[in-house]
Design a protein that fits this description.
Length: 315
């Protein structure tokens, strides 16, 4: 046979097999048991990983609350899922994690409409090309990715305890590159890079989980892996980037549905290994408990809690 034909065919076959092997190693949340009557609150459920998580939970008959800053987008997402899951029980509630008043009113809504929730998934997040200081006087990554959720969970803490509800925190492997500097916490101080601000906020997520765990909350942290979502919407991706980065894409880029498996696993699995918790630096990656390279210090975790209370003006 002609080499010009066989070579590309063999190469394509090998690439296909490598990709399939990678996908297999990323794991899948296979638990199909019904979640009827269980209430899951997901921040940022209108897009990307949050959307795929909501979709999977809806298929398992769960009730899902879409906590979103844009109700039009949230209701569009709900309609999309309803086309697939006719009797899905989905509701949108407004929540803008960059505005303290919005967070407070969201918590009132939850108290009124869904006081008996089972799980809250802190999923919403962003990465801005041009970081800025918001109207709450807090740098945007710190606020949207960490502090907003911190305030929300604190305002719901009594209910969380009463319901024995689970909290899932969507961090990232990039937390390993993060640092927390209390001198500049919440501020935008030169020199900075977006990547650093993002990584710092993902480390804060992990520390927040550690402290919640220490307070007796059932909390799970995960990294979804590098996923194809709207997270990079602020950046222009040119066609040649796809070619230049094709090996990375082949080896690392997951679909949103694939990445969401980690969140679904954390939200619904009953794994109870007391050693493998966020306080001991365990994070779910590839649907498995994995130890982070970072040892989370108790001092930082306690201080972050105190400073976050100050910054969100609850003390
Ligand atoms: N994609 C990845 O490779 C990757 C890797 C590791 C970790 N993660 C984490 O996964 C989570 C989900 O991200 P994604 O990849 O699914 O991105 P995405 O498609 O952009 O979804 C992010 C969601 O967060 C919402 N959001 C952002 N800022 C908000 C705010 N101030 N108030 C309320 N909602 C807000 C967005 O709402 P709008 O649509 O209204 O903007 C959107 O629904 C994030 O925490 C991210 O850090 C992602
Ligand atoms: C949707 O779920 C909520 C919370 O579990 C429940 O109170 C409500 O009756 C459900 N609605 C329908 C139509 O099943
Ligand atoms: C599957 O999910 C259900 C509901 O969350 C849970 O009760 C059950 O223990 C799970 N099964 C496994 C093997 O984790
Ligand atoms: C996990 O198991 C320990 C010890 O058996 C128990 O004290 C704890 O309440 C369990 N946690 C959950 C979330 O089931
Ligand atoms: C974390 O702690 C373990 C056990 O105390 C130690 O072996 C390891 O070197 C530490 N890692 C870092 C990055 O400090």
């Amino acid at each position: 046979m002609n080499l010009l034909i066989t070579l590309p065919v063999v190469a394509a076959g090998v690439i296909y097999l490598i990709r399939k092997q990678r996908e297999y190693s990323w794991g899948w949340a296979n638990n199909k048991s019904s979640l009827k009557g269980k209430v899951f609150i997901i921040t940022g459920a209108n897009s990307g990983l949050g959307y795929q998580t909501a979709r999977a939970l809806a298929k398992r008959k769960a009730t899902v609350v879409f906590a979103c800053r844009d109700l039009i987008k949230a209701n569009e997402a709900i309609q999309c899922i309803k086309e697939e899951v006719k009797d899905a029980n989905l509701t949108a509630l407004p929540l803008d994690l960059e505005i303290f008043d919005s967070i407070k009113s969201f918590c009132h809504d939850v108290n009124r409409e869904f006081p008996e929730f089972d799980c809250i998934i802190n999923n919403a997040g962003l990465s801005m090309k041009e970081p800025f200081v918001t109207s709450e006087d807090v740098e945007v990554h710190t606020l949207a990715n960490h502090l907003g959720h911190f305030l929300m969970i604190n305002l719901l803490l009594d209910l969380i305890k009463k319901n024995n509800a689970r909290i899932v925190i969507v961090s990232s492997k990039l937390h390993e590159k993060g640092t927390i500097n209390f001198e500049t916490f919440g501020k935008l101080v030169e020199p900075y890079t977006t990547k650093q601000l993002y990584a710092n906020s993902k480390l804060m997520n992990f520390y927040f989980a550690k402290e919640l765990y220490k307070k007796g909350i059932d909390v799970h942290v995960c990294c979804p892996g590098l996923c194809y979502t709207e997270l990079f919407r602020d950046y222009t991706i040119k066609f040649y980037h796809w070619i230049v980065f094709s090996p990375v894409i082949l080896l690392y880029l997951r679909s949103a549905e694939q990445g969401a498996q980690n969140i679904i696993h954390c939200a619904t699995d009953d794994e109870n290994d007391t050693e493998k918790n966020p306080s001991n630096s365990y994070i779910v990656m590839n649907c498995r408990q994995t130890k982070s390279k970072i040892n989370l210090s108790d001092d930082v975790s306690e201080k972050l809690w105190i400073e976050s209370k100050k910054l969100s003006k609850i003390e």
